[in-house]
Amino acid sequence: MSPSAAATTKSTAASTINAVTIKDLRIVVDSSGEDIVDEVNLAIAPGEVLGLVGESGSGKTTVGLSVLGHARRGVRLAGGSVHIGDSSMLELDDKQLRAARGHLVSYVPQDPSTSLNPALRIETQLMEVMEFHGFGESNEARRERAVEVMGEVLLPGTRQFMRRYPHQLSGGQQQRVGLAMAFACRPSVIVLDEPTTGLDVSTQAHVLTTIRQLTSVHKVAALYVTHDLAVVANLADRVAVMYAGRIVEQGPTRTIFDDPQHPYTRYLTAAAPDISGDHTIVGLRGRAPSPGKRPVGCAFALRCELAIAECHEVFPAVTEVAVGHTVRCYRAGDVPDRTLAKGVQFGSSSTEGIALALRNVCCSYTGLQVVHDIDFEVHQGECVALVGESGSGKTTLSRSIGGLHRDWTGDIILNGSPMERSSRDRPTAQRLSIQYVFQNPYSSLHPRRSVGESVARPLRVAGVGKHEAQRTVGEMLEKVSLNASYAQLYPDQLSGGERQRVAIARSLVSRPSVLICDEVTSALDVLVQAAVIELLLQLQRDLGLAMLFVTHNLPLVRSLAQNVVVMADGKIVEFGPTDHVLAHPTEEYTKRLLADTPSITQALTSGTLASKPRRAISPE
Predict the structure, then answer these.
(1) Which of 6, 206, 332, 378 lies deepest, with the highest CB count within 10 Å?
(2) Strand-pair category, 49-53 with 238-243
(3) CB 104 within 8 A of CB 618
(4) Strand 75-84's sheet: what is its strand order?
């Protein structure tokens, strides 16, 4: 078969077991030749979902893009092979790759808005995909397929809906339209890159159900790139764990979660919060080496308390510890007990004085009221979680408390004193007493200010002298598990977790009494997330902070908050101690949120985890 035909024709031979086969993949930085990904071997059967997990920067997305024969600018596919059926993706020219992408293999990015053209209607974008790849014999056949695929992703195929523009859809609807475009030409393989990271649990549940059904019914092989282990536990048939550009363990999902053999995998599972609350999340100090700085031997040895001399000399060979379960570790199966610590971490509600009180607070946008009659309190030394679906009013309420949204009525009282609507109208002392940590660590720091300048900013506003500010900045950086030398660095020199720690340090440097955290871990992988949560818990204990933690990640609430406020349609529908609300909810809305939240423990106990990979024949 010629390369051109291979790019546009799916293999139907019964002997082709795997839809995707990656062998000895090596990807390097083009200018230096330093490897980003090396010795990667993966295979996915038709109808199977392989979860690819690991820390940010481990090479997951780079491997996912290689399945499409693509490498980012400045990166080169330097060795190995990627086969989809009979097509060698790394040997196709640009024209053949354009024909293959969308027809043979499709890609769904993390941000649904990046996969849709804001200037084109949904129907037009679906039709364009099919027309480009010659799918369907006529426009009428393609329109029928467009309606069909919209139904497959649980969206209406009506003329009215299809003529909408992307901005007229919710985030979950945009993501499902992206899935519809990816599945429109019935590809053999689909690569999903964190497709539910920014979605609330209910929307995420709809998207995951859609993915599960489409891959199973149409026998599409799926590579699911994510750092959400609970999603993997409930969706994937097999799991591959990456660290510093290499696969360190892979096997059936149940085996990986029930009996992981690599210490790194143990740390990942110990760091993953679970709605069941049956274990304390445990972080991991340090960070994975960057390209070109990978040490000799096992890259994880520098962070592994089980490392022996051999670990620093030669990277271990692949060892098959059970059928379909492989690991690359000299100490496979040896587990540090502390990574499996049991017990829920939250405590009883604080009886200290009231730090923050809301009384009949209503918030509006251009005269339209979106948050209604909010009443609750946060005591000193207490964390209250504010949870709910996207659009429930959580962020609008938190921004009103912080003085960033000024169109509100009622009373917001800080340490016994009412606050003005806008932060600009509040006294300096009051502004410094309530601080806000934003969701995105990449945009919350000024790129042209050093870490020291950013952290010192609140002190300068308060009139603190330069030398005193420098000393305080160094102390605060140490308190958030960085060191004073970080003050000389700039945001682009930091990892996501380090940037978020800097943002927390900036918020705490003025010694506030109330800290508002708005989805501060949603962009972080599980190990960094666990470290940030450990940090917040320690700061809460040491400084007596009152915290309002805004999130749609219910498992995190188990590990951090004493009380939880559940919001829906701008109103509080349930409030109470965390353990009681999550274990014994009274409102149907709360029950639905909990039911939609993926759980590793529940997947293990209910038997929904796959015990072995599917072995279906190649797709039709």
Answers:
(1) 378
(2) parallel
(3) no
(4) 35-44, 20-29, 75-84, 87-88
Separation of alpha carbons 417 and 354, rounded Å: 11
Go through the chain and tell me how many residues it has: 620
Q: How far apart are the two ends of the chain, measured CA to CA in Å?
A: 18
Cβ 126 vs Cβ 184: under 8 Å: yes
Are 202 and 213 in contact, with CB atoms under 8 Å apart?
no
Report pLDDT for 109.
Answer: 86
Q: Is the pLDDT of residue 9 over 80?
A: no
C-alpha closest to that of 347 among 383, 379, 386? 383
**CB 384, CB 401: distance < 8 Å:** no
Buried b / exposed e over 232-269, threshold 16 CB at 10 Å, is bbbbbbbbbbbbbbbbbbbbbbbbbbeebbbbbbbbbb
Task: Give the residue with greater pLDDT, 179 vs 606.
Answer: 179
* Per-residue pLDDT, 350: 53
Region 478-503 average pLDDT: 85
- pLDDT digit string (tens) for 246-304? 999 999 999 999 889 999 999 998 888 888 776 777 778 777 887 778 889 999 999 99
Name which of 326, 333, 332 is nearest 246 in CA terms.
326
- Order of strands, edge to edge, in the sheet holding 434-437? 434-437, 514-518, 546-551, 383-387, 563-568, 571-577
Which own/partner pairs from 93-101 qualify as long-range (CB within 8 Å, at least 24 positions apart)?
Answer: 93/3, 95/4, 96/3, 96/4, 96/6, 96/7, 97/7, 97/68, 97/69, 97/70, 99/4, 99/7, 99/8, 99/133, 100/7, 100/8, 100/68, 100/69, 101/68, 101/69
- 206 phi and psi angles, rounded to 5 deg: -65, -45
Q: Taking residues 464-493, report their average pLDDT.
A: 88
Nearest residue to 90 via CA among 8, 19, 3: 3
pLDDT for the residue numbered 450 = 94
CA dihedral sign, ordered 83, 87, 92, 95: negative
Neighbour-count burial for 29-49, b at 16+ CB within 10 Å, e otherwise: eeeeeebbbbbbebbbbbbbb
Rounded CA separation 574/464 (Å): 43
Instruction: Give the range among 176-180, 221-225, 292-296, 453-457 with minimum mean pLDDT.
Output: 292-296
Measured distance CA(136)–CA(143) in Å, rounded: 9
Q: DSSP 3-state helix, strand, coil percentages of the chain (rounded to 5)?
A: 40, 25, 40
257/30 Cα distance (integer angstroms): 37
Whole-model pTM over 0.85 = no
- Token digits of residue 404: 């960033």
Contact 366, 396 (CB under 8 A): no
> In whole angstroms, what is the distance from residue 300 CA to residue 92 CA?
35
Token digits of residue 340: 């499996």
- Return the closest-CA partner of residue 123 out of 171, 180, 185: 180
Q: Are 579 and 344 in contact (CB under 8 A)?
A: yes
Number of Cβ within a 10 Å radius of residue 223: 26
Helices (H) and strands (E) in the chain, counts: 21, 22
